Amino acid sequence: MAAQTALSTESTTTGSVTPVDLGPAVALSCRECGHRVPLGPVFACEECFGPLEIAYDFGVHSAADTEELRKRIEAGPANIWRYAPLLPVPANVAEKPNINPGWTKLVQADNLARELGVDAGKLFVKDDSGNPTHSFKDRVVAQAIEAARAFDFTTLSCSSTGNLAGAVGAAAARAGFRSCVFIPHDLEQGKVVMAAVYGGELIGIEGNYDDVNRFCSELIGDPAGEGWGFVNVNLRPYYAEGSKTLAYEICEQLGWRLPDQLVVPIASGSQLTKIDKGLQELIKLGLVEDRPYKIFGAQAEGCSPVSVAYKAGHDVVRPQKPNTIAKSLAIGNPADGPYVLDIARRTGGAVEDVNDEQVVDAIRLLARTEGIFAETAGGVTVGVAKKLIENGLLDPTLTTVVLNTGDGLKTLDAVADVGLTATIRPSLESFREAGLG
Amino acid sequence: MAAQTALSTESTTTGSVTPVDLGPAVALSCRECGHRVPLGPVFACEECFGPLEIAYDFGVHSAADTEELRKRIEAGPANIWRYAPLLPVPANVAEKPNINPGWTKLVQADNLARELGVDAGKLFVKDDSGNPTHSFKDRVVAQAIEAARAFDFTTLSCSSTGNLAGAVGAAAARAGFRSCVFIPHDLEQGKVVMAAVYGGELIGIEGNYDDVNRFCSELIGDPAGEGWGFVNVNLRPYYAEGSKTLAYEICEQLGWRLPDQLVVPIASGSQLTKIDKGLQELIKLGLVEDRPYKIFGAQAEGCSPVSVAYKAGHDVVRPQKPNTIAKSLAIGNPADGPYVLDIARRTGGAVEDVNDEQVVDAIRLLARTEGIFAETAGGVTVGVAKKLIENGLLDPTLTTVVLNTGDGLKTLDAVADVGLTATIRPSLESFREAGLG
């Protein structure tokens, strides 16, 4: 995570003070002190340095308004823009060039349920590997693109070690932005290819991911960074809202019903907090019945600062040095960690972690039961769901949604030990000798 | 391709003679001599050895029937099962466990159009990388699964060098079949992982792909193969119908309109012939207006038997030994080659090929213009589209759909030379020195 530093309004582009059309978004509001500022490319409160969030006016004041909204959503496109009335994007967003992520499958996972001891028909996997660049990052980058248009940015940027680089590269290419992505210079060749193929600039930084982040923060404050939208820094308030669409889709796909339990991965913690925000919005808007739900956070043991804090009963999160195969979750100092702790405790959920071996077992379990090949992050959520059931913390009789946020093709190394069952000569004799006939 | 050999009715399972419920499918009919046999796990005519195809009764006899069908489709799920009334599957197919491919994006590719000199709003990419295992093979395997259920098969099998192995493994896992897939024993480790992760049996055959195929044909005729459905051999007539859904989706996504021109890759040629079949069905059913369309076939120069035959004016296809990076298209003796030649000539299309360098250029072109990272097969179709425009064979003022049938993540090696734009130290000075600021 980039450090949360305040930008004074003077240092931002002029776009931040002129009114912009981002649909129902009306202002930025500090999550800590409630201070409001106009919509602009800022991410930290000028009063208290707290994180800024989007404040909305959805214009829904009656049951008739709710019904109209529901119909409008259901008649919308099969992507996140069906929820444009609830996102910081202009109403005509679907007409603009965008890679149009979302509306991924909610898979009723009866085979997995049987293995985990969950009641039939109660377990679902929200499979975000179906997004255009095969991770949930497409959802958040799509929002950042619209904010970048609104603020007249011409270059899209980010620091990344994988999924985000590809998502930014692809979205920028299609939307007509220059992109310039910063990564540690010694990333695996496969990840470099996935990020570079979209033709944007890909800059290797001599150093580790923290060095990359520090450099990006410097660049934002420098004239050289003028006109640059860093999707996960100065566009973060907009970007982060993309995760709300996971909550919207899950509820709509369940027939406008809240799930009882959700198992969500934790990297920065932003996704989990925005899923909670999305569920709360649906309740307030009257689109779903107001009843309790529990949110469970999932981490890898090798990077489990939030899980450790949860179990110790702490309100603050002590940073860790990550060491896990679940690299897309490996943020040792998660910015939204404390909010995640709040949500897990408030909803009656929990935060749990699994070790790398359990991650791999869970990837293979999901693949052989449901035909879904998940990234390591999906191994973390499925593995944690299994552990929570064994612990008695997750109720196997209730409707449960487990998130898979990425694609196994991106983390092939994690399961590199799977292989051939047998090698035979091309003859029936050899087939029988191998005990296969 | 497996050799087309006839199976006598005696040698097939009893499922072939008892009536089965495969929706509108009523019989198998020989493409060459028209001889009809009951639905069963057979693929070649007992009279003339010609390929068997599904014969349907769609029950559409009036404009009112057409309108009802259109409404039923539009109200259907966001996957291929919206077209269940036109496929060899039972009416309740959507309720069965299946990986539910299809309804992938038809991307209006205005950036690519600009680069290729096509009129704005006229060029579309049908992007099948969005399928569950990220290739169009999920469409065909989904049909084979339903046929396997109908014929009481318990094991799903195939010979494969890549996409098909993963598609069969995933679909079998979810649908509750045993799977046993045969591949050359020396495949790249990445491809082995992608196929093995779903937990089915994966057997390496000491030999090349032809040896694998020959062995599979032997196994079908042997008692050891009893109860085995080879998706692309004894279930081929059902399997192949899955490609019709590409035609259906393209037309529905264009607003129930035929495209003027399609650029389709050729491996066995089956996909191209079934797209044509699907378009003809939509015309006959009254779902689209009856007007001309042109189908263009695309091959890689290193495996271009159909393109060579087309250009030489031949009706037969002389086999080649493949040598191209477009491995998913590398079938040197394409079973449906002659039918492809017929269709290209009848519709006023053509068959063209591009070399490996042009394939790579086209992959990069599509990625940097539309944010779509295509498999080598997508590089072939985009590269051929570019060449056909330069040749004057493809009209840049007409609505054109180019197919991308797979995902770039599966053929990373093809673009392994893309990489970092620059490497810098984590400082603004270094950033400026590199000419980036």
TrEMBL record, chains A, B:
Has the keyword Lyase been applied to this entry?
A: yes
Q: Name one GO biological process term.
A: L-serine catabolic process
Q: Which cofactor does it need?
A: pyridoxal 5'-phosphate
Protein family according to the UniProt entry = Belongs to the threonine synthase family.
- Residue ranges constituting the Tryptophan synthase beta chain-like PALP domain according to the UniProt record: 101-406
Query: What is the superkingdom listed in this entry's lineage?
Result: Bacteria
Q: What is its EC number?
A: 4.2.3.1
List residues, modification N6-(pyridoxal phosphate)lysine.
Answer: 137
Could you tell me what this protein is called? Threonine synthase
In terms of Gene3D superfamilies, this protein maps to: 3.40.50.1100
List UniProt keywords, sorted A-Z.
Lyase, Pyridoxal phosphate
Q: Name one GO molecular function term.
A: L-serine ammonia-lyase activity
Q: What class of enzyme is it?
A: lyase
